[in-house]
Design brief:
Elements: H1 2-17, H2 21-38, H3 41-58, H4 61-73, H5 75-78, H6 81-97, H7 101-117, H8 121-134, H9 140-160, H10 163-179, H11 183-198, H12 206-216, H13 222-241, H14 246-253, H15 256-265
Length: about 270
């Protein structure tokens, strides 16, 4: 049974990376039941963490937080430092979605520091880029911090050849340029980000760059703008259609950005 649980968990991880969220949830739930039947706390902690991570991606933030915090309670049993990092990063993302920027800052910087200590540049840059995005609606000081974070992420990600981190940093810098009224720079940065998305970067949040570029091009290249907005809606709709469970569908549709992207397509 233990091998069955691990096989189900591996299938869930593959499905989650491919944004096949319903499959991921189904596999993780089945794996979790196997571990509970075996009384394996370490394996249970791993599956709770993975469910929390996929619930974060879907937008079920309160449920995600419950699973992630339970996994954190079991972190000594998890025995997987990389997964523990993922738990902290996702808790930071949940805090950001709840509008608690201070909690998000503390969690994401903690995760970034832990990742740096482990030599995990990919996770470190993900945490810093996510914090930069969380700061975009804040005070002038927050915007300065967001810019410094994004510029650092961009320089390091380019040097390391990390396309997803590069894409995320470009998106933040594009939005900052737009807020400053520099639309030409905003378009140039987001065009570079979308080029990376088209070749596989940022499979989960790259849709934000496609959608943003669609808005930025509305007044200068309207046909291209419409195509980009339609692409963003198609990507979001495909994820929604893959969710069979009604509570998962409701959670996904509860995200303001999801509703915005689909509403514009209508």
């Amino acid at each position: 049974m233990r091998l069955e649980g691990e096989a189900l968990n591996s299938l869930g991880e593959v499905a989650g990376r491919g944004t096949r969220y319903q499959e991921a949830v189904d596999y993780f739930r089945a794996a979790l039941q196997v571990d509970r039947d075996l009384g394996d706390r370490a394996a249970t902690g791993t599956k709770l963490a993975n469910l929390g991570i996929v619930y974060t991606a879907i937008g079920l933030y309160r449920r995600a937080e419950r699973y992630l915090r339970k996994a954190l309670e079991l972190h000594e049993a998890i025995g997987h430092p990389g997964l523990l990092l993922e738990v902290v990063v996702n808790l930071g993302e949940v805090s950001a979605e709840h509008g608690d920027v201070q909690a998000a800052r503390a969690l994401l910087l903690h995760a970034a520091d832990m990742a740096a200590a482990r030599g995990d540049a990919r996770t470190e840059l993900r945490a810093r880029a996510r914090l930069a995005r969380a700061l975009l609606d804040g005070s002038p000081d927050d915007l300065d911090e967001a810019r410094a974070l994004a510029e650092d992420v961009l320089a390091r990600a380019r040097g390391l050849g990390l396309r997803t981190a590069t894409c995320r940093a470009l998106h933040v810098l594009s939005r900052l340029s737009e807020q400053a009224g520099d639309l030409a720079t905003a378009r140039k940065l987001e065009e570079e980000a979308v080029e990376l998305v088209r070749v596989g970067a940022a499979p989960i949040d790259g849709v934000l760059s496609i959608h943003h570029l669609g808005h930025l091009l509305a007044d200068v290249r309207p046909a291209e703008s419409a195509a980009l907005l339609a692409d963003a809606a198609a990507a979001v709709r495909a994820r929604l259609e893959g969710l069979r469970d009604e509570d998962l569908r409701r959670g996904y549709l509860a995200q303001a950005k999801v509703r915005e992207i689909l509403g514009e397509a209508e």
